[in-house]
Write a structure and sequence with these properties.
By secondary structure, this protein is mainly β. It is built from no helices and 35 strands.
């Protein structure tokens, strides 16, 4: 067990002159203290803490192509570039009043941020964090006034594009950064898209809808077909339970031609065929699922839960669709992250101030690390995956 507690100053685990790659590094968000931990996944070690990143509630991270720099999106509109090798902030800008994640372009040149306040998307140079483009996401409201929409579900897509949803305007937009003049295309979507994902092959962009049942799908191979509705009964059901936390769509698992995803307001993981999006199964679980994540080999589905049953993780065999283990990583489990080849998964337990590393072979813990209210876990392997 290796740990850091309190506000310790970074102490390098390796001599500073020793060359180090970044392929097995990552960042853990410490939301209460506005700091991130730099970790090494091979050695199960904490390399240091970087402080001064502002409000990190609901924070997320994307990486430069070389995996050296993490771009941390804070809730206070902060965009912070962190050097994982020197464990220091390279640059930081406050680019809005309230932001909700971002993405890095396919070629690594641009970092885009999705904003609640004042709305829209801003695009920055990934080297300098200088503003390259401001997309206000304007639309006409019911009174005919031009206003800005909150934007959500921002992802990168093949072709050096960004894709995002307009919560207030019921639209999905694509932004082509490869065009001589970056171009926006607009598509009508369902009522109030609140989050979105892009499939691992970068073809399908799927937005969850807060205002109606069902989901909006945009086929990026055939965008001229517009947005189609899928899973029209998603969100419906018998007696719904109170929804303590809306599920993250990024947490959908795509495995063996099927999508495993959390039911809204039900203690179930749903399974749909991806060729026609028909629902084929409902897997009972112990609470309302939040993240439903497939191991890199698609053999296991790991599920975390909303309050009040958020102190366990359940593991589903993707072939039999049966729960094979219920784990207790600690209180208030918030996030999970698989190592690139899937031999381990790291699980954060906020109220236990702990991150637990599990073997996916034995489903037993192999290491624990101390952290201050840990939430999101982001490995540098994300630098080489679409939509992450």
């Amino acid at each position: 067990m290796v740990g850091l507690t309190g506000c310790q100053v970074f102490t390098p685990a390796l001599p500073p002159h020793e060359p180090m790659g970044t392929g097995d590094l990552g960042l853990i968000i410490e939301r209460a203290t506005g700091s991130v931990l730099v970790i090494n996944t091979s050695r199960h070690t904490l390399l240091g803490r970087v402080e001064g990143l502002g409000d990190l509630s609901h924070a997320s991270v994307v990486y430069s192509r070389d995996g050296r720099y993490g771009y941390v999106f804070g809730r206070d509109g902060g965009l912070t570039k962190v050097d994982l090798l020197t464990r220091a902030i390279v640059n930081r800008v406050i680019q809005s009043g309230n932001s909700i994640g971002g993405a890095i372009s396919q070629d690594g040149r641009f970092v885009a941020v999705s904003n609640y306040e004042p709305g829209g998307v801003k695009v920055f140079d990934s080297e300098t964090l200088e503003l390259v483009m401001n997309i206000p996401a304007s639309y006409s409201d019911a009174e005919g006034k031009t206003v800005q929409s909150k934007t959500v579900g921002l992802v990168d897509a093949p072709g050096n594009r960004f894709v995002f949803s307009l919560f207030d305007a019921d639209q999905i937009w694509t932004l082509d950064m490869a065009a001589p003049e970056p171009a926006v295309r607009r598509f009508d979507a369902g009522d109030a898209p609140y989050d979105a994902l892009i499939t691992p092959d970068g073809r399908h962009y799927i937005a969850g809808l807060f205002g109606e049942d069902g989901l909006s799908l945009l086929d990026l191979w055939n965008p001229e077909q517009g947005v189609t509705e899928i899973l029209p009964d998603y969100g419906k059901g018998e007696q719904k339970l109170p929804v303590y936390k809306m599920p993250h769509l990024e947490g959908w698992a795509i495995a063996d031609g099927r999508a495993f995803f959390p039911a809204v307001g039900h203690h179930q993981v749903l399974v749909a065929k991806m060729d026609d999006w028909s629902l084929v199964d409902r897997i009972p679980v112990q609470g309302q699922p939040v993240f439903v994540m497939a191991s890199p080999d698609n053999r296991q589905i790991w599920v975390s839960f909303a309050h009040p049953k958020n102190d366990v993780v359940q593991v589903i065999d993707s072939q039999s669709r049966k729960i094979i283990r219920t784990l207790a990583p600690g209180e208030a489990v918030l996030h999970m992250e698989f190592t690139p080849r899937g031999e381990e998964v790291w699980v954060s337990a906020r109220d236990s101030n702990r991150v637990t590393v599990y073997s996916t072979r034995t489903l037993e813990p192999v290491a624990t690390l101390d952290a201050e209210k840990p939430s999101g876990i982001f490995f540098t392997s994300r630098a080489h995956a679409l939509g992450l």
